[in-house]
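User: Can you help me understand a structure? I only have the sequence.
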Amino acid sequence: MEFWKAILGLLRRIHLGPPLILLSVLVGGVVHLVIPAQYTADVSLVLATPVNGGTVSNDKAKQGLTNPFLNFNDALKTGASIVILAMNTQDVWTQLGAPKDGPTEITIDDGRTNPNVLDINGPYIYVRVNSDSAEKATAVLMAARERVAAELFKWQKALGAPANTFITSTDIVPPAKPEADSSLSWQGAIGAALLCLFLGLGIAYGVLTKRAPAPEKRPDAEAPAREPLAAPTPPPPLAPPLAPAPTSALDEDSSATMEFPVYRGEPLSRVPGPRKANQDDGEG
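Assistant: Let's start by predicting it. Here is the structure, written out as C-alpha coordinates:
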Protein backbone atom coordinates (compact mmCIF):
# COMPACT_ATOMS: atom_id res chain seq x y z
CA MET A 1 0.00 0.00 0.00
CA GLU A 2 2.83 2.40 0.80
CA PHE A 3 4.38 1.70 -2.60
CA TRP A 4 1.25 2.73 -4.51
CA LYS A 5 0.88 5.82 -2.37
CA ALA A 6 4.42 6.76 -3.30
CA ILE A 7 3.68 6.16 -7.00
CA LEU A 8 0.59 8.39 -6.88
CA GLY A 9 2.64 11.01 -5.10
CA LEU A 10 5.21 10.92 -7.91
CA LEU A 11 2.50 11.34 -10.55
CA ARG A 12 1.14 14.38 -8.73
CA ARG A 13 4.47 16.16 -8.90
CA ILE A 14 4.38 18.80 -11.60
CA HIS A 15 7.99 18.39 -12.66
CA LEU A 16 7.76 14.58 -12.87
CA GLY A 17 4.21 13.27 -13.50
CA PRO A 18 3.01 15.23 -16.57
CA PRO A 19 6.36 15.04 -18.46
CA LEU A 20 6.53 11.29 -17.88
CA ILE A 21 2.96 10.76 -19.10
CA LEU A 22 3.64 12.88 -22.19
CA LEU A 23 6.80 10.88 -22.92
CA SER A 24 4.88 7.60 -22.64
CA VAL A 25 2.23 8.83 -25.09
CA LEU A 26 4.93 9.88 -27.57
CA VAL A 27 6.64 6.49 -27.32
CA GLY A 28 3.33 4.70 -27.92
CA GLY A 29 2.62 6.89 -30.96
CA VAL A 30 6.03 6.16 -32.46
CA VAL A 31 5.56 2.41 -31.98
CA HIS A 32 2.09 2.63 -33.58
CA LEU A 33 3.62 4.30 -36.63
CA VAL A 34 6.53 1.89 -36.84
CA ILE A 35 4.38 -1.26 -36.76
CA PRO A 36 2.46 -1.33 -40.05
CA ALA A 37 -1.16 -2.34 -40.34
CA GLN A 38 -1.91 -5.82 -41.64
CA TYR A 39 -4.18 -6.32 -44.65
CA THR A 40 -6.16 -9.54 -44.99
CA ALA A 41 -7.72 -10.95 -48.17
CA ASP A 42 -9.27 -14.37 -48.69
CA VAL A 43 -11.21 -16.47 -51.16
CA SER A 44 -13.19 -19.69 -50.78
CA LEU A 45 -13.32 -22.25 -53.58
CA VAL A 46 -15.28 -25.44 -54.11
CA LEU A 47 -14.64 -28.30 -56.50
CA ALA A 48 -17.50 -29.48 -58.74
CA THR A 49 -18.01 -32.13 -61.38
CA PRO A 50 -19.14 -31.23 -64.92
CA VAL A 51 -22.79 -31.47 -65.86
CA ASN A 52 -22.06 -34.50 -68.00
CA GLY A 53 -20.78 -36.41 -65.01
CA GLY A 54 -17.45 -38.06 -64.50
CA THR A 55 -17.94 -40.86 -67.02
CA VAL A 56 -17.93 -40.77 -70.82
CA SER A 57 -20.57 -43.01 -72.36
CA ASN A 58 -20.22 -44.43 -75.85
CA ASP A 59 -23.98 -44.42 -76.32
CA LYS A 60 -24.85 -40.78 -76.81
CA ALA A 61 -28.57 -41.61 -76.59
CA LYS A 62 -28.14 -42.71 -72.97
CA GLN A 63 -25.90 -39.80 -72.04
CA GLY A 64 -27.68 -37.33 -69.77
CA LEU A 65 -26.91 -34.24 -67.80
CA THR A 66 -26.30 -34.25 -64.02
CA ASN A 67 -26.73 -31.47 -61.52
CA PRO A 68 -23.27 -30.72 -60.10
CA PHE A 69 -24.83 -29.88 -56.71
CA LEU A 70 -25.84 -33.53 -56.43
CA ASN A 71 -22.34 -34.83 -57.03
CA PHE A 72 -20.49 -33.53 -53.93
CA ASN A 73 -18.96 -36.75 -52.68
CA ASP A 74 -15.76 -38.03 -51.10
CA ALA A 75 -14.05 -38.16 -54.49
CA LEU A 76 -14.23 -34.38 -54.79
CA LYS A 77 -12.95 -34.00 -51.23
CA THR A 78 -10.02 -36.23 -52.07
CA GLY A 79 -9.22 -34.03 -55.09
CA ALA A 80 -9.35 -30.92 -52.91
CA SER A 81 -7.00 -32.52 -50.38
CA ILE A 82 -4.51 -33.35 -53.16
CA VAL A 83 -4.50 -29.74 -54.38
CA ILE A 84 -4.10 -28.39 -50.81
CA LEU A 85 -1.15 -30.68 -50.13
CA ALA A 86 0.49 -29.71 -53.41
CA MET A 87 0.23 -25.98 -52.63
CA ASN A 88 1.38 -26.06 -48.98
CA THR A 89 5.09 -26.01 -49.72
CA GLN A 90 7.59 -23.21 -49.24
CA ASP A 91 8.58 -23.26 -52.92
CA VAL A 92 4.98 -22.66 -54.01
CA TRP A 93 4.56 -19.87 -51.43
CA THR A 94 7.71 -18.19 -52.68
CA GLN A 95 6.49 -18.42 -56.27
CA LEU A 96 3.18 -16.87 -55.23
CA GLY A 97 4.97 -13.92 -53.55
CA ALA A 98 5.10 -15.00 -49.91
CA PRO A 99 8.73 -15.90 -49.19
CA LYS A 100 9.91 -17.26 -45.86
CA ASP A 101 10.32 -14.68 -43.03
CA GLY A 102 8.72 -12.05 -45.27
CA PRO A 103 5.92 -9.58 -44.50
CA THR A 104 3.38 -11.69 -46.41
CA GLU A 105 1.83 -14.87 -45.03
CA ILE A 106 -0.43 -17.27 -46.90
CA THR A 107 -2.80 -19.94 -45.56
CA ILE A 108 -4.31 -22.71 -47.71
CA ASP A 109 -6.59 -25.32 -46.11
CA ASP A 110 -10.02 -26.95 -46.33
CA GLY A 111 -11.82 -24.07 -44.62
CA ARG A 112 -11.07 -24.97 -40.98
CA THR A 113 -9.50 -21.51 -40.41
CA ASN A 114 -12.53 -19.75 -41.89
CA PRO A 115 -15.09 -18.99 -39.14
CA ASN A 116 -17.86 -18.66 -41.76
CA VAL A 117 -17.60 -22.30 -42.85
CA LEU A 118 -19.93 -24.44 -40.77
CA ASP A 119 -19.05 -27.82 -42.25
CA ILE A 120 -15.55 -28.66 -43.49
CA ASN A 121 -16.53 -32.07 -44.85
CA GLY A 122 -17.11 -30.63 -48.31
CA PRO A 123 -14.55 -30.22 -51.14
CA TYR A 124 -13.51 -26.71 -50.07
CA ILE A 125 -10.26 -24.85 -50.67
CA TYR A 126 -9.77 -21.73 -48.56
CA VAL A 127 -6.99 -19.24 -49.28
CA ARG A 128 -6.12 -16.34 -46.97
CA VAL A 129 -3.30 -13.80 -47.35
CA ASN A 130 -1.94 -11.41 -44.72
CA SER A 131 0.44 -8.66 -45.83
CA ASP A 132 1.59 -5.17 -44.88
CA SER A 133 0.24 -3.79 -48.15
CA ALA A 134 -3.24 -4.02 -49.66
CA GLU A 135 -1.85 -4.30 -53.20
CA LYS A 136 0.53 -7.07 -52.17
CA ALA A 137 -2.24 -9.03 -50.45
CA THR A 138 -4.48 -8.80 -53.52
CA ALA A 139 -1.71 -9.84 -55.92
CA VAL A 140 -0.74 -12.89 -53.85
CA LEU A 141 -4.38 -13.93 -53.42
CA MET A 142 -5.09 -13.81 -57.18
CA ALA A 143 -1.91 -15.74 -57.90
CA ALA A 144 -2.91 -18.44 -55.40
CA ARG A 145 -6.41 -18.65 -56.92
CA GLU A 146 -5.00 -19.22 -60.38
CA ARG A 147 -2.49 -21.73 -58.99
CA VAL A 148 -5.35 -23.83 -57.53
CA ALA A 149 -6.95 -24.12 -60.99
CA ALA A 150 -3.58 -24.94 -62.55
CA GLU A 151 -2.79 -27.65 -60.00
CA LEU A 152 -6.24 -29.18 -60.43
CA PHE A 153 -5.85 -29.29 -64.21
CA LYS A 154 -2.30 -30.67 -63.97
CA TRP A 155 -3.22 -33.56 -61.69
CA GLN A 156 -6.22 -34.63 -63.76
CA LYS A 157 -4.20 -34.52 -66.95
CA ALA A 158 -1.39 -36.50 -65.31
CA LEU A 159 -3.90 -39.21 -64.33
CA GLY A 160 -5.31 -39.40 -67.88
CA ALA A 161 -8.84 -38.19 -67.18
CA PRO A 162 -10.98 -37.23 -70.20
CA ALA A 163 -11.08 -33.49 -70.77
CA ASN A 164 -14.88 -33.32 -70.70
CA THR A 165 -14.89 -34.88 -67.21
CA PHE A 166 -12.40 -32.52 -65.58
CA ILE A 167 -13.30 -31.20 -62.14
CA THR A 168 -13.48 -27.43 -61.98
CA SER A 169 -13.02 -24.95 -59.13
CA THR A 170 -15.64 -22.29 -58.50
CA ASP A 171 -15.56 -19.27 -56.21
CA ILE A 172 -18.02 -19.50 -53.36
CA VAL A 173 -16.99 -16.07 -52.05
CA PRO A 174 -15.13 -13.99 -54.65
CA PRO A 175 -11.98 -12.11 -53.63
CA ALA A 176 -12.88 -8.89 -51.82
CA LYS A 177 -10.94 -5.73 -51.16
CA PRO A 178 -8.35 -6.30 -48.41
CA GLU A 179 -9.32 -4.95 -45.00
CA ALA A 180 -6.82 -3.20 -42.73
CA ASP A 181 -6.23 -4.75 -39.30
CA SER A 182 -4.55 -2.34 -36.85
CA SER A 183 -4.96 -4.46 -33.73
CA LEU A 184 -1.30 -5.50 -33.72
CA SER A 185 0.00 -1.92 -33.98
CA TRP A 186 -2.38 -0.74 -31.23
CA GLN A 187 -1.31 -3.54 -28.95
CA GLY A 188 2.34 -2.65 -29.49
CA ALA A 189 1.65 1.04 -28.88
CA ILE A 190 -0.23 0.46 -25.62
CA GLY A 191 2.41 -1.97 -24.37
CA ALA A 192 5.26 0.43 -25.16
CA ALA A 193 3.49 3.36 -23.45
CA LEU A 194 2.80 1.38 -20.28
CA LEU A 195 6.33 0.05 -20.21
CA CYS A 196 7.79 3.55 -20.53
CA LEU A 197 5.49 4.90 -17.79
CA PHE A 198 6.22 2.17 -15.25
CA LEU A 199 9.93 2.19 -16.04
CA GLY A 200 10.13 5.94 -15.47
CA LEU A 201 8.17 5.70 -12.21
CA GLY A 202 10.38 2.89 -11.00
CA ILE A 203 13.56 4.84 -11.70
CA ALA A 204 12.17 7.96 -9.97
CA TYR A 205 11.04 5.93 -6.98
CA GLY A 206 14.47 4.31 -6.64
CA VAL A 207 16.30 7.65 -6.84
CA LEU A 208 14.05 9.31 -4.24
CA THR A 209 14.36 6.33 -1.92
CA LYS A 210 18.17 6.53 -1.99
CA ARG A 211 18.14 10.27 -1.35
CA ALA A 212 15.73 10.02 1.58
CA PRO A 213 17.44 10.49 5.02
CA ALA A 214 17.83 7.47 7.22
CA PRO A 215 15.31 7.25 10.09
CA GLU A 216 16.65 8.47 13.48
CA LYS A 217 17.19 5.90 16.19
CA ARG A 218 14.99 6.11 19.29
CA PRO A 219 16.68 7.13 22.55
CA ASP A 220 17.42 4.53 25.15
CA ALA A 221 14.82 6.03 27.52
CA GLU A 222 12.08 4.92 25.19
CA ALA A 223 13.37 1.40 25.17
CA PRO A 224 11.17 -1.01 27.09
CA ALA A 225 12.26 -1.57 30.71
CA ARG A 226 13.72 -4.90 31.45
CA GLU A 227 12.09 -7.08 34.05
CA PRO A 228 14.10 -7.38 37.31
CA LEU A 229 15.85 -10.60 37.84
CA ALA A 230 14.56 -12.79 40.61
CA ALA A 231 16.77 -12.99 43.74
CA PRO A 232 18.53 -16.33 44.11
CA THR A 233 17.08 -18.58 46.80
CA PRO A 234 19.46 -19.28 49.72
CA PRO A 235 20.70 -22.85 50.11
CA PRO A 236 19.12 -24.94 52.91
CA PRO A 237 21.01 -24.95 56.28
CA LEU A 238 23.41 -27.75 56.87
CA ALA A 239 22.67 -30.29 59.60
CA PRO A 240 25.09 -30.24 62.64
CA PRO A 241 27.69 -33.00 62.65
CA LEU A 242 26.93 -35.99 64.81
CA ALA A 243 29.11 -36.45 67.97
CA PRO A 244 30.98 -39.72 68.29
CA ALA A 245 29.66 -42.21 70.81
CA PRO A 246 31.49 -42.06 74.24
CA THR A 247 33.77 -44.98 75.17
CA SER A 248 33.09 -46.79 78.44
CA ALA A 249 36.64 -47.82 79.30
CA LEU A 250 40.15 -47.32 77.97
CA ASP A 251 42.93 -49.90 77.88
CA GLU A 252 46.20 -49.04 79.55
CA ASP A 253 48.19 -50.38 76.60
CA SER A 254 46.38 -48.26 74.08
CA SER A 255 47.83 -44.90 75.09
CA ALA A 256 48.96 -44.24 71.54
CA THR A 257 45.44 -44.68 70.29
CA MET A 258 43.63 -43.04 73.14
CA GLU A 259 40.76 -40.85 72.21
CA PHE A 260 40.01 -37.83 74.34
CA PRO A 261 36.50 -36.85 75.22
CA VAL A 262 34.97 -34.12 73.17
CA TYR A 263 34.70 -30.81 74.90
CA ARG A 264 31.06 -29.86 75.07
CA GLY A 265 31.48 -26.44 76.57
CA GLU A 266 30.40 -27.18 80.23
CA PRO A 267 31.86 -24.70 82.74
CA LEU A 268 34.85 -26.11 84.70
CA SER A 269 34.98 -26.14 88.51
CA ARG A 270 36.94 -23.30 90.06
CA VAL A 271 40.32 -24.12 91.55
CA PRO A 272 40.69 -22.73 95.12
CA GLY A 273 43.34 -20.10 95.61
CA PRO A 274 46.42 -20.58 97.76
CA ARG A 275 45.18 -18.44 100.64
CA LYS A 276 42.07 -20.41 101.09
CA ALA A 277 44.01 -23.64 101.00
CA ASN A 278 46.31 -22.39 103.80
CA GLN A 279 43.40 -21.41 105.91
CA ASP A 280 41.93 -24.81 105.53
CA ASP A 281 45.23 -26.36 106.62
CA GLY A 282 45.39 -24.17 109.74
CA GLU A 283 42.00 -24.93 110.69
CA GLY A 284 42.70 -28.56 110.46
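Now, to help you interpret it: Residues 29 and 189 are 6 Å apart (CA to CA). The first strand starts at residue 38 and ends at 48. Let me know which part you'd like to focus on.
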